[in-house]
TrEMBL record:
UniProt-listed Enzyme Commission number(s): 2.5.1.141
Subcellular location: Membrane
PROSITE patterns to which the protein is assigned, alphabetical: UBIA
UniProt name for this protein: heme o synthase
Lineage per the UniProt record: Bacteria, Pseudomonadati, Bacteroidota, Bacteroidia, Marinilabiliales
Residue spans crossing the bilayer: 12-31, 37-56, 76-96, 102-122, 134-157, 163-181, 209-228, 234-255, 267-284
Membrane topology: Multi-pass membrane protein
Amino acid sequence: MSLSFLHIKTLGKLSISLPVALTAYTGYIIYDESLSVYGLLVAVGIFFLSAGASSLNQMQEQKFDALMSRTANRPLPLGVINGSSAFVITFLFFLVGTFALLPFGIWTVISGWMGVLWYNLFYTPMKRWSAFSVFPGAVVGAIPPVAGWIAAGGSILDVRIHFLALFFFLGQMPHFWLLVLKYGDQYRKAGFPVITDVLSEEQINRINLVWFLATFISAMFLPFFNVITNRPVVWIITISTILMMAWSVRITLQVQKEGQSLHLRKMFLYFNSFYLWVMILIYVDQI
């Protein structure tokens, strides 16, 4: 089987690296107060750093990926890409990402690489011994918008970027725990400690509801911190957030009555779509 773009795409998780890049662009335009074309270069840099981090992660966890059906078809456990080729691809991802960020200064490069180092040197090893690794892992989701903000010239002391980072941080917990609920048996088979070994599914659903609501409530504060200022957009995000809060309570009650298998995919899709919707509203706010 020959190497193809699909294998490289899977190795770098490009479909996941894209929304990560969009969060960096979100941080950039909030400070720049325009839909900056120049800011897209920051997004490109974060995109390739994210791809490199994902590629390195698969190199680190190759033997574990081979034990789970959801990951066994990745290029490394499948044998389509060997270790040397994966190293070269990973290096190129990092090289392109770093050079894309260089025009914005050394602190932008450092902030971008902080996400890589935290993900690969701290979170990835921690997954093997703690079922609660999601908490430090969530920090990874808060770093790209900060990198975009710094690239645009923003101060790290500005409360706006801290609150935007908090918004992206909060959503990481339900995102990861929904995955664990769906693939818990596979994680356990591969030797990873999973949250269902510590808490019951009913407890996890209740905790997830708290994180759902915290995420949605934090979105309502984006106008308060002047992340969103256009009045029609403020109304749209307020109404959207209230609807999502009502949905989260309703879907949690359904899960308790009918079980998780019927609703996990819907919960994952709806929740992550909300993040995309908020970013779109932030972009519209800058028009």
